[in-house]
């Protein structure tokens, strides 16, 4: 039997975030998702928030707290890519990706930590990427933002670990979502050649790992980077 928790997933209207919300719902938890547009899965509370805007995050948390109680599990999933080679990358292309993927996670986690500290319990899961540690040409902005999440989880672990709060990173490889659908077919085939598993994963395969790391059985794991990448990033 797992304890029923209140869970908030950012960017839960599609892709990996949607699958994560579905997985927590299937396990009987109280689930809310943030969305800028669209809705989370049936059974989840959808609240509006943009992770680049701290006030909208605060409003979203207040709404979730009023409806479902204090947030005990937070999954910082919202993320964007704006790929281009370094020489062509504008400062705005760099900072906007960092603002969403890294500072966005900071804003969400900071707001979540209030209730977690009071409850002396919390599970923080940051959705990074294999390229955070592996690197990727054309993704200096994205990989920097995703590597930053590792330092964040480890600092959070040191700061909050004694209060019953864990902070972990899940680092997916290539997952079948809008983000990877946007890649040209030839590039997708090329990537698959380098993945030991020989395929992309489904969002569900990431969601199950996220639910596990946030669950009762994983209470002594913190500051870890858990790859869900078919072996692509082995060695980090
Ligand atoms: P999608 O592009 O399918 O979805 C991205 C989600 O993030 C959407 O819900 C989107 O909301 C939300 N989002 C983006 N910007 C903001 C913002 N400023 N405020 C609030 N929400 C925002 O992505 P995936 O599902 O593929 O990716 C989810 C996470 O997993 C991301 O962090 C991504 O970097 C990571 N990841 C994905 C991989 C993949 O292969 N797909 C591999 C490794 C990591 P909206 O619909 O409103 O735009």
UniProtKB/TrEMBL annotation:
Domain Ketoreductase: 5-178
Transmembrane segments: none
Superkingdom of this protein's organism: Bacteria
Entries under InterPro entries matching the protein: KR_dom, NAD(P)-bd_dom_sf, SDR, SDR_fam
NCBIfam families: PRK12826.1-2
Protein family membership: Belongs to the short-chain dehydrogenases/reductases (SDR) family.
PANTHER family given in the database record: 3-OXOACYL-(ACYL-CARRIER-PROTEIN) REDUCTASE, 3-OXOACYL-[ACYL-CARRIER-PROTEIN] REDUCTASE FABG
Protein name, entry field: Beta-ketoacyl-ACP reductase
